[in-house]
Amino acid sequence: MQNIKIFPDPQLLAQAAAEQFVQISDRSIHAHGVFSVALSGGSTPYLLYNLLATEPYSERVDWSRVHFFWGDERCVPPDHSESNYFKAHQILLQHLPILEENVHRIQAELKPELAAELYEETLLQFFSNLLDEEERVHARFDLVLLGMGDDGHTASLFPGTPAVLENRRWVAAQYVDKLAAWRITLTPAILNRAEHIIFLVSGAAKSYTLQRVIYGSYMPDRYPSQVIKPENGDLIWLLDEAAASLF
Ligand code: 6PG
Fold first, then answer.
1. CB atoms within 10 A of CB 125
2. Which residues line ligand 1 (CB under 6 A)?
3. Is pLDDT at 42 greater than 90 in this prediction?
4. Closest Cα to atom 2, ligand 1: which residue?
């Protein structure tokens, strides 16, 4: 049963996402003292990040307890306009009273395989600090924010790429032919452990693919967003009417 919420426009979608972010951060901090969130790349979340950086939302989160991660990163320097870290820093992070050491960016300026290995280490370190030995198996993000491309990709899990079906390693480096570029991405192995996963999808250009992803047959190699199925957490699709126009 898909949990789908449809809003008239991207701004109302972003407000709903901001409300979810605040509520999940409250619950996570109350439950275990921190809130770990994997931010989405792409442009859809910009409205959400802008809302979180301004009142009233910016006053409703205990930012000192928030740990920021990324679902994927382009293999460019952190000050490059294409960097997901750069955009999140510009729109959100630089405006908040966060602790620098709680911003865990993917060092995608390094060789791709090394960047992936280092990020996997970062995740293992973070979750092992949180959990003792036997609990490590429960390593999970409190919240994962995801977008969806009009080809059905999410994070940097693109159609036909090996990371889509990776169920052991948490982070993968892969060359994406259609982009002629390297990407670093979290894999379903860690994404699907999340407590809460929120897809943010807006715009008519995605309506056909979105309809296939949600209601079509299961073909994750063709529509990688279908591989996102939280093991014990919940998945919410926050859509605008344009993206949901073929439902
Ligand atoms: C990225 C994202 C990617 C994005 C989709 C949607 O690095 O680009 O992680 O998965 O979410 O491509 O992008 P838009 O929100 O810009 O449509």
1. 11
2. 40-44, 71-72, 84, 147-149, 153-155
3. yes
4. 41
